[in-house]
Amino acid sequence: MKKKISLRKVYAKKLSKLADVNKRIIVIDADSREATGINIFTQQHPNQSYCVGIAEQNMVSLAAGMSLTGLIPVINSYSMFLIERTVDQIRNTILWPELNVKLVGSHVGFDVGIDGVTHQTIEDLSIMRSLPNIVILNPADDIEMEQAVDFMIKYQGPVYLRTGKTKVDRFHNIKYKFRMGEPSIIKQGRDVALFSTGILLEETLNAAKQLEKNNISAMVINISTIKPINEKSIISIVKKTQCAVTIEDHTIYGGLGGAIAEITSKNEPIAIEMIGINDCFGETGYGKQLYQKYNMDEDAIIKAAKKAIKRKNLINN
Amino acid sequence: MILEKSKIKRLKEIAKQTRLDIINMIFTARSGNPGGSLSCVEIIVVLYYHVMNLHPKNSNWAKRDRFILSKGHACPALYSILSQKGYIDKSELSTFRQFGTICPTHPELGKTKGIDFSTGSLGTGLSVGVGMALGFKYLGLNNKVFVLIGDGELQEGQNWEAALTAAQYKLDNLIAIVDYNKIQQNGTIDQTISLKPLNKKWLAFGWKVKTVNGHNITDLIKIFHSLDEINNKPKVIIANTIKGKGISYMENSVKWHIGANMTEEEKETALREIKKIKI
After folding, report:
1. What distance in Å separates the CA atoms of residue B158 and residue B151, rounded to the nearest whole number?
2. What is the mean pLDDT of residues B52-70?
3. Containing H/E element for B239?
4. What is the pTM of this model?
5. Which of A310, B76, B120, B218 has a Cα at 20 to 30 A from A104?
6. CB–CB contact A26 B110 (8 Å)
7. Do residues A90 and A60 lie in contact, with contact meaning Cβ atoms separated by under 8 Å?
8. Count of beta carbons in the 10 Å neighbourhood of residue A210
9. Phi, psi of B40, deg, nearest 5
10. Which residues are within 8 A (CB) of A313 and not within 5 positions of it... i.e. 6 or more apart?
11. Per-residue pLDDT tens for A164-174?
12. Which one of A55, A67, A89 has the shortest CB-CB distance to B124?
C-alpha cells in the first residue's frame, strides 16, 4: 500500500519540476516557505523565487503587476492570509483584470489543527466562489495534485489551488486523468451520493464502507474543482441516487454544500445533508479531534447519509 | 541640459487643454474628483510628452514604459492626455462615467488604449508597479515603471509594504510620484492623518527622494532627468501641488475633492479662468 503523503510537498515538487524547463514560473511567498512546503522549490530554483516578507496584500498586487511582464507568478501562503486578508487585492488587481496569477494556499480547514482559530481558514471556498474569473482546485491525492499543478500552469488566468498539511492516501489509480470541472467517482453506489472535497475523502470512504455493512450502497464522489463545476455531471449523479451528502473541511455556508445545492435546486431538487463546520470557529486541536467534536467525521457522515435517505423516501412516498 | 522654450511652451499648452477637458468631462458626468485631477496635470503631461518611452500607435508595444495611476479617481487628467496623444478619440471624453463608456470612473486595463493597469482601490498601485519592475529586472529588460500616488492614499499600509519590497530588491527602474496636494475627502491631510515628515519617511524606507514644485514643467523635467544617474534604489518624487490648481474657487478646497453637481455658472467660470492662463 502506498505511503501517505503531504499534498503541499507533492505540489512543491511538481512545480519545481515544471520550473526546470519553464523559466517564466516565479514563486513568491510571504515568509512562509517551510510551512507551505514551497521551500522544496525555492531551494532548487533560488533565482525564480522572491520573498516579500510578511506582507500578503503587497504580494497579491505585486504578482498582478509581475504577470503583465509575461511571467507566471505563483504566490504562496497560509490560506487565511493569502485569501482572507487580501480579498480586495485579489478581486480588484487579479480577478477583475483576469491576470495570469496562481494563488496556492497551504493551510485549510480544521486540518490546520493546533495552530488554532486564527490559522484555520474555514471560509476560503465560499469567499472565492463568490468572485468572478477564478478557477478553484482542491485535489484529493498525489495523482490528482500533480496533474492539477500541470493544469494550473498551462491555464491562462487566475487559479486558486488548495494544498494540505496532513498526509493523505492515494485514492485514484495511476491511469486517472484530471479534468477541470469533472468529479471523479471513487466508489460506485446507488442509494446516496457522498460528495467530498479535499481532506475528508478518507472519512467519507470509510463511512461508505460502513454503510455497505448496513446494506446501504453509497456512491463516493471526489470534487476537486470547486469552481467551475460541470453541472451536467452532478445532475447525472443525483438523478441516480436522488439524495446526497456534501462533506467538506469548510463552513457549510457557501462552499461545496452550497455549490451542489445550487445546482440541484435549479435542476434536480433532492434531499441534501451538509457535513462541514456549522457556523462556528474551531479551537486548538488536531484535525481528527476537531472532526469528531464538530460532527464532521465518519460517524457524522453515516448519520447524515441515513438521514438523507430517510428524507428521500419521505419525499417519494 | 538645455530645455527649448518652445518645448516648454507646448507642454504648458497641453496642460491648459487638459484642464479644459477635465472641467468639461466632470461637468457632463455630474461628478468626478476635479480637485485631485487638476493637481496632477503637469506631472502626467511631463511623463507622457517627455519622460516615458511610448508608442501611441502601438499601445501594447512591449518596450514601452508603464504608468500606473494609483490614485485612479484622477483619471480625467489621464484620459485627456491619452486623447491628445492619439490613444483614444477626443469624442470619447464626453462619455466619461457613463454607461458603455471607454472612459470609466476608474481606469480599466483592456477597456481604454494606453491604460496599463486597473485602479480605483487606493493603495494597490505601488505594489503593482513593484511587481512590474521586478518582472522587468528578472527578464533583463529596460522598461521603467512610473506610479502616481495620492497623498491621502499613502495612509493605506500596503503602500509601505510595497516600498519595503522595492528597496529590498533595489528596483531602480521604479519611480513613484506623490501628488502632495495636502487635501483629502474629509479635510486636510494634517487634520486627518498627517504624513509629515513625508520625505524622511521615504528615506527611511530606503528610497532616493526628490522634492519638486509639481506645477513647474521645467523643474519636473529636470527632476525626472536627475533620477537617471541613481542606481540600486527605487526613486520617489514628492511633488508639491495645489488641489484644484488653475481654478480660483477650487484651489485648496476640500469641497472640490468630490465635486459633484458643478453648476453651469461654475463650469463657465472655470473654463474662462483656464483660458486666461498665460503660457
Report:
1. 14
2. 97
3. strand B235-240
4. 0.97
5. B120
6. no
7. yes
8. 16
9. -110, 15
10. none
11. 989 999 999 99
12. A89
